[in-house]
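Morning F.,

Quick status update on the modeling queue. The single chain you submitted on Monday has been processed. Sequence for confirmation:
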Amino acid sequence: MGFLDNVVNGLGQDAAGGLGDLLKSQGGVGGLAEKFGQAGLGDVIGSWVGSGANAGVTAEQITAVIGHGPIADIAAKMGVSPQQAGETLAGLLPEAIDRLTPGGQIDGADDLLAKLPGGLGDMIGGFLKR
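Structure tokens below.
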């Protein structure tokens, strides 16, 4: 069982919905990429968008980029501690961004996210069926 399986099965659709809400609150994939770049982590998110292996990210880096408030919000939605939410996001964001940018381009990723029925939760569920 992979990481996404564990997240969706262990935390349910709240985790996936929380991730979708988080992405929207950060200005979508483009806004999040900009924030990663400003934090000196442009190469990390670039690996998620581009082809090849996704670079890892820590819960602390996620919190530094996104901020404590949004992490606390997603933690409350998921019913976990902010530390657990940061760890979940550190494992989930690389693959989610990778899947939202199949052509290696950020342009259009937010359109893809918005067009998905049921939001990111359904998208993640779809990943698990592949």
